[in-house]
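Repro case for the chain-ordering regression, as requested:
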Amino acid sequence: DQQVKQNSPSLSVQEGRISILNCDYTNSMFDYFLWYKKYPAEGPTFLISISSIKDKNEDGRFTVFLNKSAKHLSLHIVPSQPGDSAVYFCAVRQETSYDKVIFGPGTSLSVIP
Amino acid sequence: DTGVSQDPRHKITKRGQNVTFRCDPISEHNRLYWYRQTLGQGPEFLTYFQNEAQLEKSRLLSDRFSAERPKGSFSTLEIQRTEQGDSAMYLCASTKLNFGGTDTQYFGPGTRLTVL
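-- result from build under test --
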């Protein structure tokens, strides 16, 4: 049973427009949320994170929104650039379990020039 | 390059053979993790070390799998009697323990295993 779901396996967006990637989780005990980006032949790279005490965190073109009541988070990329084309993984962690990060299945983003 | 490195990058083996992978974490990082990623899935946690101590193992880690981190620096993951179902990308990650709860895991490029 997947604890982290990313229901869109793929997403195509025009360059300059907004990309919105969604993620749902099942366990309300999760209290730290991360997004990783992965290019082919490379390991995942940390992108941005948010603690459960916040509902928004912004870093340049990347913003993560957290809706705890809905157990939903999203990653907004604006404006999207061709270099953003990659697989994006949503990941969750529980404060009492610093060691274990649970990843979603990923969404493949293609930004079309 | 001061990132996480893994060796080899690719390994093709025949069913029943043993394979060993190596991970060199970022030098000051005391926690090291192994993950497995199959096609269309995110990385799945296998095990982790704090210094040389192996603190947790996933039930995904069958008896054929063993991991070590003998001196608290590099780690090895061995798979004995490989099966076709072991074909996957094996990822290593490291972090520095931070009780603030914001320790980011840095991943290596992975070792892609193909079992024929």
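Ordering looks correct now. The mean pLDDT of chain A is 93.
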